[in-house]
Amino acid sequence: MCRVKTVYLTSLLVVCSGLTVFGQWSPVNSGTTNNLNGGHLLGSGTGLIVGEAGTILKTTDLGATWAPLTSGTTTGLHGVYLFDSDQGVAVGEQGLILRTTDGGAIWQTVASGVKDSLRCVSFSGANGICGGGSNTILYSTDSGASWQISQTGFIDPGFFGAHMLSATAGFVVGQNAISQALIGATTDGGASWALQAFYFDNKEGGATDTFFFDQNTGVVSGILFDGGGAIARTTDGGTNWSTLLFNQPIQGVDFPTTDIGFAVGWSGRILNTTDSGVTWSDQASGTSVNLNNVSFGGNALTGIAVGDSGTILRTTNGGGPPPTPTPTATPTRRPTPRPRPTPAPRPRLVRPLSGDR
Q1: Which of 82, 80, 100 is nearest to 90 (CA)?
Q2: Contact 257, 276 (CB under 8 A)
Q3: CA atoms of 304 and 43, how far apart (whole Å)
């Protein structure tokens, strides 16, 4: 009989210890279905998100969990800025400005002097700017406790993004009345502005957000009138632009470092750059929901993206792929030895003596 020898091959068991695989960005429970329009995440762990119907959410663990705050209003909010874990400013519809000095437990209304929708806010130290409809621009020199009107009352759609680069230099971006993207620059803390109109690669549209590295070099995101989107970059303060076009509108942009930046847009679009906005590559968001804003907390690893229907996405590795799990080999199973039958002793042949023959 031929005994078949069983061979056990070593198998690889992939172990993903402590790793939840959602792709490059992971969804986080927001507790709301309201559209979320703006967010600001600090490296200390504190962050705020604002949205429709006066929604304000707060995190203290770098965006891992979020809790609702009482804003005292049902008016839609569009932009938010955090100075530290206690002080913050939120802006919204009908000229609404809210300010907190106790981490969001109480929000006080601050007079804006306008009734236009306020859509963006940014500070550098105590000096800040706010942009909105009708080309409204406000500025503050006391961390948002009071505001002055720089300009307002135009027929233009207005400004949707702002970046305060220093105590004196700042930028706002938006759209003018003839469907051109519009950028404004200040060198006196927001009291006066120089405006320039431009096209996204000869295409009509509006600018949605901006980030400047210095007074000459910056990036602007945008929406095109043909339904697409754009990211444009300038190195001369907005006189000339190099533009990349996309299939979806691009709504928000943030640079946690000079080299590394992120942009978000409709249909779950998330883009990443590692060369200060010269080139961009896609990251997997895991959603098709429109994303409206992106913010990173102090480094290029941990950030959030917010969008419609209460969507919050979070990354802790800069939107990169999950770490490759380390394969762990299961022990090689050796076959249990089978007992071999003991052969029966052979009969011993005894030669007969000569007398027995």
Answers
A1: 80
A2: no
A3: 12
